[in-house]
Specification:
The longest helix is centred in the middle third of the chain and has 17 residues. Helices cover 46% and strands 11% of the residues. With 270 residues, the protein is α/β, with parallel strands linked by helices. The chain starts with a strand and ends with a helix. It contains 12 helices and 5 strands. α6 crosses α7 and α9 packs antiparallel against α10. The protein is globular and about 60 Å long. It has a 5-stranded parallel sheet with strand order 1-2-3-4-5.
Length: 270
């Protein structure tokens, strides 16, 4: 191809940003823009708001910022969705939203949370999550991970003639936020960055998904799910706490602290 419309510096964190600066990656991208090979230079970001502020202060040429933004992570202390969004607004940078349904977690809601949205007698669970993200000023695009034609058609149905959440819908979303906070779920989005570096080959996202399923539904499915994914692979108890997973986790999860809890839940009861 002759050019890229948008070229994003991927997964910027304090550590990655330092590496990008040392090899003059930003300067290279801006030079390619001058040559016409890139139309717009942006970043995707996974760190604290103060790091995003630093990047945009030092490289005001950045034209768009992709952040994780959904109603569960909006006030989350690790993701800092609201704070990162506000940094983008202050710097007048259009926002590209990733994880609007948080890896599917805002589609497959706990029963109590799902009922809150169902009582609205409106759209799908995904629709409320995506409309929440799209309703903020300065949102340029919402990236939805659609896997079926049905999901595609659903998204088009409420985005074609987009309407932000009204007061009644926002109040319902706030109730769902509170339900999630009470459940204390592991905020893994199954990006799978942790998998390749794990020397034991532990299926970390599947392990966390099983734990979250247990917290949400408290039935046999979670144990079955865990057993299926660890039958021919390493288990949570095989973790050697090397920390390689934590080095690449966009959510900054303290992964090494969690396998013992998972092991107690599933392995010690088998």
């Amino acid at each position: 191809m002759d050019y890229f419309d948008f070229y994003l510096m991927h997964a910027q964190t304090a550590e990655y940003y330092r590496d990008f600066k040392e090899c003059r990656a930003y300067e290279t991208a801006f030079a390619l823009k001058e040559e016409g090979k890139i139309r717009h230079v942006g970043i995707s970001f996974h760190d604290r708001a103060e790091v995003l502020e630093q990047i945009l202060d030092e490289y005001p040429q950045i034209e768009a910022v992709q952040i994780q933004f959904n109603y569960v992570d909006y006030e989350d202390a690790a993701v800092e969705g609201r704070k990162c969004y506000e940094v983008c607004v202050r710097h007048n940078k259009p926002v590209i939203v990733m994880e609007p349904v948080k890896g599917g977690n805002l589609v497959n809601l706990p029963k109590e949370a799902g009922k809150v949205l169902d009582d609205l007698k409106g759209g799908s669970h995904a629709s409320y999550a995506i409309r929440f993200a799209a309703g903020f000023d300065g949102i340029m695009m919402v990236l939805s991970g659609m896997g079926t034609m049905e999901q595609l058609e659903d998204n088009i149905s409420y985005m074609k003639d987009f309407q932000p959440l009204d007061e009644r819908e926002l109040a319902a979303v706030q109730k769902v936020q509170e339900i999630f906070r009470r459940m204390n779920l592991i905020p893994c989005t199954a990006c799978r960055y942790c998998i390749s570096g794990c020397p034991m080959g532990i299926p970390i996202p599947e392990m966390f998904a099983a734990m979250n399923t247990q917290k949400i539904y408290q039935d046999w499915n979670s144990s079955w799910y865990y057993e299926i994914h660890t039958k021919d692979r390493a288990k949570a108890s095989d973790c050697i706490k090397c920390g390689k997973c934590e080095e690449v986790c966009p959510q900054h999860l303290k992964i090494r602290e969690l396998p013992e809890m998972v092991s107690d839940q599933f392995e010690n009861r088998q």
